[in-house]
Amino acid sequence: MDMIFYDGHCPLCLREIAVLRRMERGGLSFVDIHQQPDSGPLAPGRDQLLRRLHLVASDGNWYIGLDATLRAWSHTSAGWLFKPLAWPLINPVARLLYNQWADRRYRHRYVCNSCTRI
What we know:
Blueprint (H helix, E strand, L loop, with lengths): L1 E5 L4 H13 L4 E5 L13 H6 L2 E3 L5 E3 L1 H8 L5 H4 L8 H21 L7
Parallel strand pairs: 1-2
Antiparallel strand pairs: 1-3, 3-4
């Protein structure tokens, strides 16, 4: 079973996870990073988990960021909508946009003392 790690303190993340939970057809479990003890020796640390979406597949491989999103949505009937994000001409742009968004989200939620929301 694939396991997705999400930020349970992020309203936007919670909305996406709620949709994933409703749509997933099995094979995906959900872990709120804030409800788990610190990561084990083979897992990324809490800070890394908060910076990007992480998914560990049933075979032990880790997927991070856009790759984790694509893998998670592949467990739903809407997975085909996300496949173009993996296409060679679209993937670099999608990856750049995801990383910029994730960096901004992390900075506003966990780094910037005066920021409370994105």
